[in-house]
Amino acid sequence: MIVLARPDARMRESYLAAHDEFVAIGEGHRDGDGVWVEEPDDSGFAGVAFTRAELETPAGFERFAARRRDQAREDAPRPGGHVPCTFFWVVDDGDPDTYLGSISVRHRLTPFLLELGGHVGYSVRPSARRRGVATAALRASFPVCTALGIDPALVTCDEDNLGSARVIETNGGVLEDVRRGKRRYWVATTAPDLG
After folding, report:
1. How far lies 181's CA from each of 108, 167, 178, in Å?
2. Which helix (H) or strand (E) holds 87?
3. pTM passes above 0.70
4. Which CATH number is correct for 2-187, 3.40.50.970, 3.40.630.30, 3.40.50.1260, 3.40.50.12780?
5. Which residue among 33, 133, 134, 138 is least enclosed by CB atoms within 10 Å?
6. What does the pLDDT look like over 141-173, one tens digit per residue?
């Protein structure tokens, strides 16, 4: 069964292998997890950087995982315009050390998130696609959304990403419109189990 786990250093090797899979198909930047450098800005955010060499060490990867966990806090340092975000890594409960993907729940919408990004973003490593992982992960995020007072949640995908559109629609997403190449769906987070 697909479950959501808080970012944890035990997934280091699997996470980095998944990152290499994303890069190999041209998807090196996705849903925040592919971003290892956050530049200083005028908001007082000092910036954060991780190198691949650092992430290959247990201590460096733990620092990275802690940064991901920390982003759920309202007072955590983050770039200007960014909102608190709860990050999860998607795993199979039968193999909890293998990273299958990520999902993030943004606690509120900014104008950019309302237009294009949405409340929930997700990605699944290429070798785990077409197995229902994204559908199950999105469904598993709904209790988190509900606990944060998000109902319905805005979930978006690229207009030509029919697989992601199916994931959202399978989870009850109702298409509002398409803006600047993004399909914008509203999904009830307190809906009955869709099986």
Report:
1. 22, 18, 6
2. strand 85-92
3. yes
4. 3.40.630.30
5. 133
6. 999 999 999 999 999 999 999 999 999 999 999
